[in-house]
Specification:
Length: 232
């Protein structure tokens, strides 16, 4: 999971929310449209909002850090961090809105293994929140692609999101191995320098020229930081 710095609420969403707040469901009974009804309305600018959220997040899923884009084979969608079922008043609150991957993986037999918001459903996370910068500090990664924590509440959140699904572990391991193999080829058995590792960490911590973060960037950074502690 990577910390997401929320930007300023886009004007089009603010204008739409104001429109919803001033709309009547039944004027005779003085019943106004709710934020949840506004979110589900046909004129809700969901496509535009999703594009804004994807760009804000550097084109990675807010939970698993998978690559997401509007051209993805499995289209991403909008997630309410605090679900609409329990917090309908936040349905149009920009600070509660995130972009997530489809959260689906099917094996060769067609069995599905859900993760991220499709696994979370209407559950509430105990601690993990991509909008809280502490989310990066409480998570650890292994070279095999497993994500873990020393905190029991965070482990429960990992289970709720199914972040250790076979597919995600495999993809994280692949990203970690690609980086370590590239370092191995670069130094060919000689001692890896701290300067080089710091440069790699900076690369994964930053957006590329297209504004994208690398998929599973925090997993790679964690492994590189361990390598840095052993470097000369």
């Amino acid at each position: 999971m990577k910390y997401i710095r929320k930007g300023k609420e886009p004007n089009y969403l603010k204008q739409y929310r104001n429109k919803v707040c001033n709309s009547w469901v039944d004027k005779s009974q003085k019943i106004r449209m709710t934020p949840k009804q506004g979110y589900e309305a046909s004129d809700m600018p969901k496509a535009q909002l999703l594009e804004t959220l994807i760009e804000e997040q550097g084109s990675i899923c807010c939970y698993c850090m998978r690559r997401i884009s509007k051209s993805s084979k499995q289209l991403p969608h909008i997630e309410h961090y605090l679900p609409q079922s329990s917090h309908p008043e936040l349905a149009l609150d920009y600070k509660n809105l995130l972009a997530v991957c489809q959260g689906e993986y099917s094996d060769k037999s067609g069995n599905k293994d859900w993760h991220c918001d499709h696994r979370k459903a209407n559950g509430l996370l105990r601690f993990l929140n991509p909008l809280n910068e502490n989310c990066e500090q409480v998570l650890q990664y292994t070279n095999e692609g497993r994500i873990k924590s020393d905190r029991a509440d965070v482990e429960q959140d990992i289970d709720l999101l199914n972040l250790n699904s076979d597919a995600l572990k495999k993809e994280r391991k692949k990203a970690i191995e690609a980086t370590l193999n590239a370092i191995g080829r670069r130094f060919k058995g000689s001692t890896v320098t701290k300067l080089f590792i710091k440069d790699r960490i900076e690369k994964f911590a930053s957006r590329n020229e297209d504004g994208y973060f690398e998929p599973y960037c925090q997993a790679v950074i964690f492994i590189l930081q361990k390598l840095l502690s052993k470097a000369r």
